Amino acid sequence: MAVSAEHIRSANPHFDHHRIVWRDEYSGQYRPVEYGEQFDDQWRLFLERRVGFCRHTGVETSDPYIDDRIFELTGARDVLARRRFGLWHPLVRRFGRRREEEERRVVGGRLQLHPKFAVDHFQGKRCLDVGCGAGRWTRTLLALGASVKSTDVSPHALRSTRRFNDDAESLNLFDILERRPDLHGAFDFTLCWGVIMCTHDPKLAFMNVARTVRSGGELYAMVYAPTYHNSPFVLESRRHYHRELATMDERLRYAYEIADRPENAINLFDMLNTFFNWTIEEDVIRGWYEAEGFTDVVMLNRDEANMCAYHMLGRKAG
Q: Which of 179, 185, 254, 291 lies deepest, with the highest CB count within 10 Å?
């Protein structure tokens, strides 16, 4: 029996149609969900400092964690710590850190990116952080000398990011193409981290985000690869979460139950809670970059041992 177009638009592609890997032919077939509500709980829990939703590489915005993000991007160590302690930094580094604090900062995994950006690469540049979440990448770019516009649809994400960036606004990225011409070609560097694949139409989402980059500017996008997020564990956990659990308390408890440790709960909650959880093949996202006029497209994490996502960087042709 043929599946009607209306049924496709109202269905979950993963559970109803067994579509896990995105194909561009799916573009236009599914409807958006309430994205502002979808991730808001995890940012609320972050602001409440709930165990597993803070002090985690994937979300934390305090100085030591931002120094880790700066190191991932540039290879420069302790940038904020050196600014804070000056000549006292070597002594603080030697005597002020405890082993358990170092171990805690590894929870969630650290990035292995190459090539690195020069430490002054972002100095004076106008940057856009699309789907800023708690604001860790916004704060990283600010620390590296950029000016940053931060956007998200989650109220608690914006509340978190506005603690250190006044230029933060509610924005549905699907509005960029037709409703926000002021953002077209306005940025030297756009970062879209872990957002595109969690939408009803990743191809269209990418087109919107790519439109914000000026000629000669760069776009850094992270999307899930068809590896871990295609695994039986992920697929079965997501099916149980969405089909068997009804309340927030039940779902949050389940995220803690299947996490390897309570401090890592947000990794599981983030993966489970999103309605769309597409994985995207490398040649597909490379094709998007090329179609939008980007050259010199590289995968920054190609040497990563356990790759569960692609970190792609491209430069828009001048």
A: 254
